[in-house]
Amino acid sequence: MKEEDTQDLLDLASELRWEVGENFHDTLVEGIYADAAQIAQKTEIKQGEPNPYSFERKLDQVLTSKKYGFPIMILILSIILWLTIQGANYPSGLLANFFLEFLHPILKTGATHIGLPWWLDGFLIDGVYLALGWVISVMLPPMAIFFPMFTLLEDFGYLPRVAFNLDSLFKKSGAHGKQALTMSMGWGCNAAGVVATRIIDSPRERLIAIITNNFSLCNGRWPTQILIATIFIGALVPDGLSSLLASIAVIGVALLGVGFTFLSSWMLSKTLLKGEVSTFALELPPYRPPNLWTTLYTSLIDRTLIVLWRAMVFAAPAGAVIWLISNIYVGDLSLANITIDWMDGFGLFFGLNGVILLAYVVAIPANEIVIPTILMLTVAHLNLIGAGDGVMFELESTTETAALLRAGGWTLLTGINLMLFSLLHNPCSTTIYTIYQETKSWKWTVFASIMPVVLGFLVTFLVTQIWQVFH
Amino acid sequence: MTELEACDSCALNNSAQLLKLGINVENADYVIALAGNPNTGKSTVFNALTGLKQHTGNWPGKTVTRAEGGYRYQDHKMKLIDLPGTYSLLSTSQDEEIARNFILFGKPDVTIIVVDAARIERNLNLVLQILEITDRAVLCLNLMDEALRHHIDIDERTLGKELGIPVIKCSAIKKQGIPELISTVHQVATRQIICKPHRIKGLSKPAQKMVEKLDQKIRKNYPGLPNSRWIAMRLMDADVDIIKALKNGDFDQVLT
Hints:
Radius of gyration of chain A: 27 Å
Number of strands of chain A: 3
Strand content of chain B: 15-25%
Mean pLDDT of chain B: 81
Structural class of chain A: mainly alpha
Largest sheet of chain A: 2 strands, antiparallel
Structural class of chain B: alpha/beta
Low-confidence stretches of chain A: 385-394
Oligomer: heterodimer
Order of helices and strands of chain A: HHEHHHHHHHHHHEEHHHHHHH
């Protein structure tokens, strides 16, 4: 079409717009609603009960009530975490036994037999293979228990109720109510949560949702929280209660994340991202009985195996890097030990240590490998690796992971601070890349990546100072 | 052989002619769009047709990007696009824009509109908007099992007449109604069924007149454009995206 014709058309449109008045939009929407109502009336056949969703309404009244909403939410999360912690220990031990104690020596012997040079053998078997073994035995069992339960809850329709409970708090923080949904998505994966912010129309509120999504504990971080809570916090009380206390600690961290989401949303909306709050009505989807087997299948494929695969993909090169830095010597010390010693002073200032800090550098590609990296670096640092061709460490259960970490100088404070730092640190590289993709702004990408780390150091520093006052 | 297996392999059963192609969607003969409100089971329908295992959560707004998949039916290769679930096509959030632009400029051969049978009135708001844009659509009345459980049934023949498009009752999660859906979509794609979609009638008289006037002018400039009336309404509403598209000549492309 010619340009003049287009202009002609647009002129006519604006002329008509003046004639019909400002409210064409309303007329149109009203027209659509009227038609829809008419058609629905002609075609809908309601039988029997006049109030078909009465049970759902009652359930909603309880689950989203001001009085019971939050306690029920915390209770449900506690039950899931408690079952995960209780159930994961034994299979974890079995897997560790198989990969690290049974298969590893066989591979080593095999490698010697075919005459593999020591460095290749070390690089592949002590580096890549061991890292994979750690990842599978530490992460698979908790994920295989946690994710199906979480997915069942999601499919039933509970998560939108959580979002509903949090909705008004988001509005008070100057953010969009839909951020409650994207935050809950972040509990699965932050990169997915960031993409999900597309449901928020206003760029200002969308940016707030993107920047604060990292405060939702993601798939890769739940296992870290669960393991460290079991080792350091669960151990504070007698056996019978330890899983319960550990679950409460993990929930505490998750809720702290929610708290930080509100706090930073509020601060951003008061400073860098000022503006009006959009109104919207959050729709509660119907409850649906989850299709048990399909859910189990998809949560195993979609979440557990994908997260595990991602962890393995990143763990293999990380394992290689760890082996390399542990075996390249400068003078008497390995590169890893030099870095760890150098970072130790800085780390202790925040109640962390050099191993943790180095692990977080190595683990930027994926949060999933933080714990395996920490374990391998601790072993390397304690000089257990390469101490002969036999078995280097036995990890039959979390008790022995605990023993290993304690040997590395860890205390309750280290455990608590690691849990806090795991909540408050830079997003993984996938999420950072996604943030850039969604915002197309380096400025906000850098801000979203640095802000949580700064916050993490601030919080761990404060905790350490307070701790030292009392000890 | 059990009864169920016998049914599945029978030549009269459409599922036997259905070949799920997963993500292999190159050189498709027809492009099928999947649209609908959030949380109506679009992704479940998508999975049932393509054999893919897209995660289907009970979430409003789970699909924010579009997913693609394919299936083969009676020598025709169909490419299926799962659009983000939206309540309307009138506002400006990204998910609504993706859905609208695809139906408008992606020229799908058929649009499957998935609706929640138990919430028909609210779902129809989007259906009516989609029918203004495209005249080749099939209504998938999904979640029928849930609706019946809540004592709601739909007179699908009347609904089909009112909307002017085929209506298929489904329960995608139980794979009920999927064979009928597949064959109907195929019939619409191959023009064995010609739709006469409902047009929004509820406008006020003066508004109706103005839309008609503008519509005439658009049709003069773009003869054969199927959604000229909808574009007229968008122009009356001062939709900046549509104005931009007009200036860029995007609608010239739609016609080629």
